[in-house]
Request: fold
Amino acid sequence: METLAALFTFWHEQAGKLGEQTLQHIGLTAGSLLLAVLLGVPLGLFLSRRPRWAPAVLGLAGVLQTVPSIALLGFLIPLLGIGPKPAIFALFLYSLLPIIRNTLAGIRGVAPAVVEAARGLGLTDGQVLRRVELPLALPVLMAGIRTATVINVGVATLAAYVAAGGLGEFIFGGIALNNPVMILAGALPAAGLALAFDALLGGVQRLSTKRLGQVGAALLVALPLLGGLYLLPRATGKLLAGFSPEFVGRADGLPGLTKSYGLVHLPSVVLAPALVYEAARHADVDVIDGYSTDGRIRAYGLRVLRDDRRVFPPYYAVPVVRPALLRTHPELAAVLARLDGQISDSVMTDLNYRADYLHQDPKAIAEAFLRLRGLWRAPRPAVAGAAVVKLGSKIFAEQYILAELYAALIRGNTDLAVETKTGLGGTTICFEALRDGAIDMYPEYTGTGLLVLLQPTPAVVDSLGGRPAAVLGYVRAEFRRRFGLEWLAPLGFNNTYALLMRGQQAQELGIVSVSDLGGYLRQ
Amino acid sequence: MPDAPPVIRATHLCKSFGAHAVVQDVSFDVAAGETLVLLGPSGCGKTTLLKLLNRLIEPDEGTVEINGRNARQQPVEVLRRGIGYVIQQVGLLPHYTVAENVAVVPHLLGHAPAAIAARTTALLTRLHLPPARYAGQYPHQLSGGQQQRVGLARALAADPPIILLDEPFGALDPLTRASIRREFRELEELKNKTVVLVTHDVTEAFELADRIMLLDAGQIQQLDTPRALLFRPANAFVRRFFAAERLALQLRTLTLGDLFPSTETDTFDLTATTTVHDALEALTGAAPATARFTVAQLMAAFGEALQQEEKAWKR
Reply:
């Protein structure tokens, strides 16, 4: 009930966005469907005339159908960039199989005697096709279009990952923020659209053959129009931003930034976190959100806009541990402490650069760093029955590197065995794993601990005022009290949210800080 | 009409499917107004031969001339629109009404809508499908016999001079088949048409044919009148083919004129062209007809006539 109320509030507040996303969603579905009909129906007809080709073509379309949608989008991005192109193309590929298959099945289902009689009466091949075969195949063909439509409405939610909009924006924002209301806000309209299209086309399918022909023709007119919904003019500005779903939704992300800096006239698209840097690099977008220590900043020549009003809370990396770990293995405390304050922003950016851009193995990066700092010890020989320290990490390179750093230190300086559980997904998953004891420690960021895990009232956040020490003190005390977990000492770098621009463009526009950006947009 | 040019002339037609020769060197003429029946066991090539005539199948060798013109030298649709075509499975367009099905060819030929409507109404009426009731119905609402009548009406709609029929009554039950066959025989529309009909039913062939082409393994065994096939078989195959139904066919073939050549036999319902079979039915029915002969006399004369035919053949 509470969720329901929250859901309606959300829709009410985001009515504009909801409408825009719904139209985009319909547009993506209809546009891709149109392409699939334009190619699939002639292809199906061709196969009905050349049955020898059918297994190969249907097989290929079937294989395309089995490629996971996320992977398909991934393949398409290098070819088509981000935006509606890869989204529509992926949806188009998914629609092909049902449409080709049902066209073929529909034509094959026409009684041979009817076709023979029609030819015997003197209908030309074209007339047999238009007046006999197509009308009689139409119910089956429509069933294929119906299947394709329902598939497309579902898959189109993924369009949000490639900055193509649609109802997936809410869904992925909700997943990133662990906000069920936001997920529902996108998922329910998407499901509603699927049901509505399904019912509509189901009704169409039951029409008589004659009416079906008219409706089919009407559909061919309607699809481009619906597809055109996607092209409805949207707010434009001097710069286009591309943000990850989480950034758009969380209080210290875009909403906080907009409020503090008075950012106006900055239209934005949502896309997968993994893609924002690429999008900026290829000038698909101009402003992105990112992390201040990301290796791609260096690799792609991006500039971090200085957060001169300190909107982004400090995100100092700190190992969070189960106190039991240090109690049972007191020798660990000193080992873990060897990294305290060792890694600055630029050092971390460089380590990340090696992983993200040079594709070096996190383990090798960790070893090289430790050797450089004289902290490297060769792993001690395994001791039978040794206790196991379970290290966790979230699913990105920086966390992998940190986990490997700690693993190497523990292996080299203690007799304990180490098990790394890397790639535990997002913040929530890591945190819950630590509470459950599935892992013994993982590197967390002070800002994340404050805003995502503790979620204090705005008054408390304001009172901390973004001061690094105050924030660390607060999360350390609260974690101890509420969860019985211990924050150790910071590693040194502040991997905070950052607004990034291409260095060259920022230089040309004279933008160094977020305030500069706000000023430029207001001009 | 030996002088009239043939409406259909087939010359040295050959057709193979793979290694299987289905039609082997078949030549024949069909005269205007004639009904030619292609008869033979299944697989003898009679349906293939029929489809060679309207180019639903193209021959490997040989030519078909329709009204003196090589069939291959005109667009195939134009050729087919001038030739009515009826098949065993009827093949009505399931999404067209009865009236629309009948109107297909006139429509293709660009006839005026009013003329098409009048023609459809007339044909349906003549084929015992009152248009008021049936014109707006769809094929699936009709019985098999009714569907075949619509198929026939459709073939006749544009008044083509030639009609091809492929086992048109084959899928019907015996009662319906007999009644539709009678209608077919008496149909005014067909009286002056050139008809080629495929069947494997010997009785049907004898009932409808002016001439019968008996086929086996893609070759003509004999092409002649029913009477000639019966009494002067060209080879053992022809003789064997009719052996089982010989007596019944003889009864249907010989007429009172054959039995009593010099005597005036006509009464109210028996004439010189009445078959022995029909005369017997008339004499032995529930209300026997009056005739100038008894059943015994009739059978005696029938025996004599048979002997004479045998003698004539042996000579």
Summary: Strands of chain A lie at 241-243, 268-270, 287-291, 302-305, 317-321, 388-392, 417-421, 441-445, 486-487, 497-502. Chain A is about 65% helix and 10% strand.
